[in-house]
Amino acid sequence: MVAVSNMADLTVEDGVAVLTIDNPPVNALSAGVRVGLTEGVAMAAADDSVSAMVLICAGRTFIAGADITEFGGASTGPSLHDALTAMENCSKPIVAAIHGTALGGGLETALVCHYRVADAKARFGLPEVNLGLLPGAGGTQRLPRVVGVAKALEMVTSGVPIGSEEALASGLISEIVEDLRGGAIAFAKKVVAENRPLVRIRDQNEKIDEAKGKPELFAAIRKSIARKTRNFKAPEFNIQCIEAAVNSASFDEGLTVERSLFTELMTGEQSAAQRYFFFAERMAQKIPDVPKDTVEIPVNKVGVIGAGTMGGGISMNILNVGIPVTIIETKQEALDRGMAVIRKNYENTAKKGRISQQDVEDRMGLLTGSLNMEDLADCDMVIEAVFENMDLKKDIFGRLDKIVKQGAILASNTSALDVNEIASATTRPESVIGLHFFSPANVMKLLEIVRGDASSNEVIRTSMSFAKKIGKAAALVGVCPGFVGNRILAQRQYQAQKLIMEGAMPQDVDKVLFEFGLPMGPYQMSDLAGLDIGWDAEKSKGETIRDVLCEAGRRGQKTGAGYYDYDENRNHKPSAEVEKIILEFSEKSQNVRREIDEEEILARCIYPMINEGAKILDEGIAIRASDVDVVWVYGYGWPIYRGGPMHYADSIGLDKVLAKMKEYGELTGDAFWEPSPLLVKLAAEGKGFKDFAG
Ligand code: T1G
C-alpha cells in the first residue's frame, strides 16, 4: 500500500490498482483528496503491472461532494476540474465503487470514471441546488448524457438523490454488487478481459440529441418548480446548464456555460446564505454543556395526550419511524375522530403514491387509542398536546408523575407557557422538557426543544436525537414567553399593526414580506389562523382593529372575510370594508396617516425581529445566533436563501440595523425601538452575530 496523499492510498491487487479515499466523516473533496485522485491515477497509469483501477472510499460513504468548508477560501492543491480531467483521460479503465451517498462533486467524480458499480443501498444525487449552487465539475453536462435530459433536470432542480435500482435502470451504474470492493475488482477485471471500451460520458451524445428541438422539456420543469422555487436563483441556473448541454455545439462549450453560471452563484448572496444554513442546521445539534457521551434514554414506546390537530400530527411523526404510540383522549368521540384523521392523512399520502397502503396499515397498527392515562405507565416518553391552559397542563403532569415509570421523558407541546411551572407539578422536573412542534406537526420541520431549569442532560440529549430520528430540525431554547420563534414573531406583528395605523394597508405590508421571500405576510397569516383565536365576543369593545373586524363577523378565511375578502377558492383580495374600518380606526386614535414606502415597511417588520433575536442571545435563551435562524427558516418560512434573520442582519451590517432602529425610535418616540445592548455592542465592535460566542 502506498499513501498517495494524506487522504488516499493505493494498493495493487492482481493487476487492479485500488485507490482508497479516506477523509472522514463524508470523504468530501478536500485538497488531500484531490491530490490523491490526481497522484493515484498518474501512479496507476504509469504502473505496467496495472491493467485497471478501482476508486473506492473508506468509512460510511463514497465522496459526498466538494468540501463546503473550503468554499470562499483560497483553494490549495490541484483543482477538481484538473483531477477529474486526468481521471477521464486515463488510459486504463477506472471503475468507481460506490456505497453510501455519491453526491455533488462525488457523483461528478464517479461520472468521469469509465464504469460505476454500487451496493444496493447506495444513493446518487446532485444536491448543489440546496446550497444555492449547481454541479460545477461537469455534472450538468455529463448526467443528462447518462440518465437523459428529463431525469437530469429533475435531479438537479430537486437535489433529491436516486437509489441503486433506479441508477442501474437509468444506466448510471453497470452493476449492483454485494461485496463492494471484491465486486468492483472483479468488474474491472471483466472490463479488461472483455476488452470493453474506455467509456467517456462526455463523448456520449445520444440522450442529448434526443432532446434537441424539444423546448417543452425545459418549459415543463420550469412550470413544475415555479411556485416552490420562487426567488431562488440556483434552480433556473441549473436548468440553463442542461439547456446548454443540449444546445451547445460541443461538450466543452456546455462546460464553459456551466462554469460561468457556477461562478455567478458561488459569489452570490443566496449561496452564501444557504451554505451558512447548511452548517447552522448541523451546529444546532451541538449542545456545549451537554457532554457528547451523555447516555440517551431508549425511546421505544411513546404516549401522546390529546388527539386533536397537534396530537395527531405529532403521533404521525413517531409512527412514521416505527415507534408504537398510545394516544389518549377524554371522550370516545374525540378519540375516534382523532384516529380517523390520522388514518385519512395516511390514506391521502398513499393516494399520492408517497407511501403504500401496507405502510398505512403498518403505521395504524402501531397506534393505540385509549381513554385511560394508566395505559401510559410503561412509555419511555409522553408528549402532552392539549390546549394552552396552565392549570390543565399542571393537572395532567401531576397525574403523569404518579403513573409513568421513572426515567421516562415527560414533554409538553406548549407553544408559550412556562415549562418550569409545568414541571413544578411533578416530583421529577429533571424529566420534564418542552417539545414545541409547529402546525401541521407532521409536515413542519422545526422542533423547538425547550429546556427547563431542571431538565437533565439525558433528557436533553435524548430529545435532540429523537428529533433527528423523526426527521425534525431541532433547536434547543430556554424558557421565556413565546420561546424563540413566537417571541420574535410578536415583534413583527406589533409593528405590522402599527404600520396600518400610520398609513399602510394590510396588502401593502403583506406584499413587501411576500416579495422578501416569506410564504405570506402577517395579515394573510392571521386570516389563515383565524382572527378570533383568543378573542372573546362578550368582552370585545372594539379596542383594536382585530376586535372591530371580529365584531363585524370578519373572522378570517373560514368566514370568507378577515383582513381580506376571500372567494370560493380561498383567493384573497383587498377589502374596501376593511380599508374603511382601518381609516376610521386610525382617525379615532388620532393617527395622522402618511405615505409609508416599502423600504420602511420591510425595515420596521424585520429589524425588530433582529433586535429581539439579540435580546434572546443576550439572555441565553438561544445558544447561538444560527439557532435563531434555524427556528425561523424551519418554523416560520424565512427564505433559506437569506439564511435567517440573524444572518440577514450580518449581511446588511449591524451598524445599519442599529442606525435604523434609532431613527424609528426618534420618529415614533416608541421605547419599542430601544436597541438590545448586544446589538449596540457588536455594532460598535464592527462585528456580527456570527461572532457572538454566548
Ligand atoms: N463538505 C464539508 N463537510 C461536510 C460535507 C461537505 N460536502 N458534507 C457533510 N459535511 C460534514 C457536516 O458538516 C458534519 O460535520 C458531518 O460532515 C456529517 O454530516 C463541485 C460545488 C452526506 C447526506 O451538498 O447532505 O459538490 O457537524 O451531519 O446526516 O459540483 O452531510 O459533524 O462537524 O450531515 O449522515 C454537494 C452535503 C457539495 C452534500 C450525510 N454535496 N452533505 O448526512 O451527516 S457542493 C452536498 C449532506 C459540490 C460540486 C459542488 C450530508 C450527508 P459535523 P451530517 P448525515
What does this 3D model show about the protein?
The chain is an alpha/beta fold. The chain is 47% helix and 12% strand. It has 28 helices and 20 strands. An 8-stranded mixed beta sheet has the order 13-12-11-14-15-16-17-18, sandwiched between helices. Strands 1-2-3-4-5-7-10 form a 7-stranded mixed beta sheet, sandwiched between helices. A hairpin with a 2-residue loop joins strand 2 and strand 3. Helix 5 packs antiparallel against helix 10, helix 14 (332-351) runs antiparallel to helix 15 and helix 26 (645-652) packs across helix 27 (654-668). The relative contact order is 0.06. The model has no long low-confidence stretch (mean pLDDT 97). The structure holds (2S,3S)-3-hydroxy-2-methylbutanoyl-COA. Residues 25-26, 28, 64-69, 80, 101, 103-105, 108, 127-128, 131, 133, 135-137, 139, 279, 282 line the site of (2S,3S)-3-hydroxy-2-methylbutanoyl-COA.
Strand content: 5-15%
Total number of helices = 28
Parts with pLDDT < 50 across at least 5 consecutive residues: none
Described by strand count, sense and barrel closure, the largest sheet is: 8 strands, mixed
In which range does the helix fraction lie? 40-55%
Question: Any idea what the shape is?
Answer: globular
Termini separation:
47 Å
Q: Which small-molecule species are bound to the chains here?
A: (2S,3S)-3-hydroxy-2-methylbutanoyl-COA
Q: Over all CA atoms, what is the radius of gyration?
A: 28 Å
Strand ordering within the main sheet: 13-12-11-14-15-16-17-18
The assigned structural class equals alpha/beta
Arithmetic mean pLDDT: 97
